[in-house]
């Protein structure tokens, strides 16, 4: 539906949309990746959304492992290949095992707390709220701010999945590999 913004159309406004969240060397059509290059078609929206998304991914109070459980279960619910491709690799870096990643597909985790996290995402997806029982189960390890971040992670990554799926953003070749992320950092 929407392709990445062509290189000849990148301008200062497109680069500025990425300025608060993306290092200077990635603020161009060759290094931004397909999602960012598509989002900068609407630089004002990208400039508003990306700081929130960056907070969810890097600065939220959720432990990285829990964050990736939430994101992968969200990506699974929305059938978002792009999110799944990137975050399955990030999940491994955050300490998730292959079995943990598989649990985000099946919705069934061996660990009781992981199950509470998956249940919370399922409840948000199905009914737009976490039940009191699941909220209490999450409270065994997460404080109120972390539980709030869990909800907003689901919401933020659902919004991103809606966009990525609707725009038909293609997963980059090599995404989901350590080599891909090393090349994005250099």
TrEMBL record:
Signal peptide, first to last residue: none
Origin: domain of life: Bacteria
Pfam families: CMD
InterPro entries linked: AhpD-like, CMD-like
Record-annotated Carboxymuconolactone decarboxylase-like domain positions: 45-122
The protein's name: Carboxymuconolactone decarboxylase family protein
Organism annotation: Mycolicibacterium septicum
Taxonomic lineage: Bacteria, Bacillati, Actinomycetota, Actinomycetes, Mycobacteriales
């Amino acid at each position: 539906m929407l392709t990445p913004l062509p290189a000849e159309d990148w301008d200062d406004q497109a680069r500025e949309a990425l300025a608060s969240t993306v290092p200077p060397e990635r603020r161009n059509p060759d290094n931004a990746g397909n999602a960012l290059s598509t989002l900068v078609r609407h630089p004002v929206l990208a400039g508003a959304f990306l700081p929130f998304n960056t907070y969810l991914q890097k600065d939220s109070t959720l432990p990285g492992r829990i964050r990736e459980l939430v994101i992968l279960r969200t990506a699974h619910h929305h059938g978002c290949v792009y999110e799944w491709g990137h975050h399955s690799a990030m999940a491994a870096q955050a300490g998730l095992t292959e079995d943990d990643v598989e649990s985000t597909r099946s919705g069934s985790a061996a660990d009781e707390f992981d199950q509470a996290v998956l249940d919370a995402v399922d409840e948000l997806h199905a009914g737009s709220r976490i039940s009191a029982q699941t909220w209490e189960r999450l409270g065994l390890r997460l404080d109120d701010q972390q539980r709030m971040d869990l909800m907003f992670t689901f919401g933020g990554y659902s919004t991103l999945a809606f966009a990525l799926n609707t725009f038909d953003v293609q997963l980059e070749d090599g995404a989901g590999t350590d080599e891909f992320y090393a090349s994005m950092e250099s």
